[in-house]
Known about the structure:
This protein is α+β, with helices and mostly antiparallel strands. Helices cover 36% and strands 37% of the residues. The chain is built from 6 helices and 11 strands. The strands form 2 sheets. An 8-stranded antiparallel sheet has the order 1-4-5-6-10-9-8-7, with helices on both faces. The chain has a 3-stranded antiparallel sheet with strand order 2-3-11. The longest helix has 30 residues, at 11-40. The model is unreliable at 1-5 (pLDDT under 50).
Amino acid sequence: MNKSSSSNIDPVMENFRISQEEMKENFRRQREIQNKLSNDILYSDYEKLDSLPPLQKENYGILKLEKDSLIYIALDTQIKIAKNYYLQNRHDDTLRMAFKSPDNMNVFIHDFVSKEEIEPSFKSLKNSSNLQKFKVENTIGDVKALSYKITKENKRYNGYALCFKNDGFLNFYEFESDKLPLDKLKARAIDFFSHNMKEKK
C-alpha cells in the first residue's frame, strides 16, 4: 500500500516542481543576456555611460574611477588605470577585466587555457564581432602583436592586441577604438602597456 501511494505523484507538488525548474531556466537565460550586455556595454560612447543611472551601472558591473588605481591582474602584476576611466571587473567567462578611456578607447583583458595557438584562439574570441583585416604585426618568442578590425553596435573599430602564451595559458590585451587610426592606436597601446604595467618585486 505504501508502495502504491508513493508512486502516485501529487499533481500540486509536480506543478510546483515544474514551475521552479522553469523559473531557474528563465533566471539562467536572463543572466546570460545580462552578461552579454555587460560584456558589450563598453562599446557605448563614454558620454552614454556617464548618463546611465547608478543602478544600471551596477548591473553592468561598471564603475567610474575617482582616482588613479592599481588593480591586480596576476599575483605579481598590477595595472594602473587612470582617474575617470570606466572599469569593468566582473570575471565573466574569459573576460578578466575591461576599461574605457574618456576619449573612447576600450581595453579588454582576456585570459583562458587553450590547446590552440594564439591566432585561432583570438579569432574564436572575436567570432561574434565580424572580425576583418586580421594580421600578425610582430612576433617575439611566444608574444604576438595583432591588428584587426571589428564591428560592434554598428560601428567599426580598429584593434591592436598584444597576445601572450605560456604553458597553454593565453592572455590577450586588446586595444580598440572607433576614432583612432591603427598607427595611433598601436602607439597608445604600446605606451599604455609600457607605462601602466607594474610588477611587484
